[in-house]
């Protein structure tokens, strides 16, 4: 008796697969492209990273935590989610997501031998008034510190604390 596996080896693929009138290679590519575009457009799938859309939670940074205090320039009144995407020199971008409003900006870090000084600039909503934060000590897995922000129009100073952990 012959081995069926051996009999099938070396046989060409069925020509019916390529000559089947129901098989349309162009439609298959179009359907795949449409699904790929749809997947990128869905919230949370990498299609956008806008912090201003309510209910949309995306992963934007490599540090995640909370910020607590009062800072009118970033709509902070209480405790809100804080994310930062920081390079090894502690510079990069930040996002604050509060229930009623969100903000984002850039951060520049300066490691001063055990203490980390951060200069934060708000880009949305646009502001020409930077704010600062001090982290002591900065560790590879967590950043906890205080912040202060002067109101460049002469209003009250914003203050508070924040705590981040490395993802």
Plain-language structure description:
The chain has two domains: 4-41, no CATH class; 63-166, Beta Barrel (Lipocalin). 16% of the residues lie in helices and 40% in strands. It is built from three helices and eight strands, in the order H-H-H-E-E-E-E-E-E-E-E. The protein has an eight-stranded antiparallel barrel with strand order 1-2-3-4-5-6-7-8. The protein starts with a helix and ends with a strand.
Strand order of the largest sheet: 1-2-3-4-5-6-7-8
N to C succession of SSEs = HHHEEEEEEEE
Task: Specify the overall morphology.
Answer: globular
Amount of helix: 10-25%
Got a strand count?
8
User: If you compute it from the alpha carbons, what radius of gyration comes out, rounded to the nearest whole angstrom?
Assistant: 26 Å
Average pLDDT across residues? 76
Report the CATH superfamily of the largest domain: Quinohemoprotein amine dehydrogenase alpha subunit, domain 2
- CATH topology name of the largest domain, in short, is Lipocalin
Which structural class matches the secondary elements? alpha+beta
Query: At CATH's second level, what is the architecture of the largest domain?
Result: Beta Barrel
Identify low-pLDDT runs.
3-8, 27-54
Largest sheet: 8 strands, antiparallel, barrel
**Beta-strand share of residues:** 35-45%
Total helices: the number is: 3
The separation of the N and C termini measures 61 Å
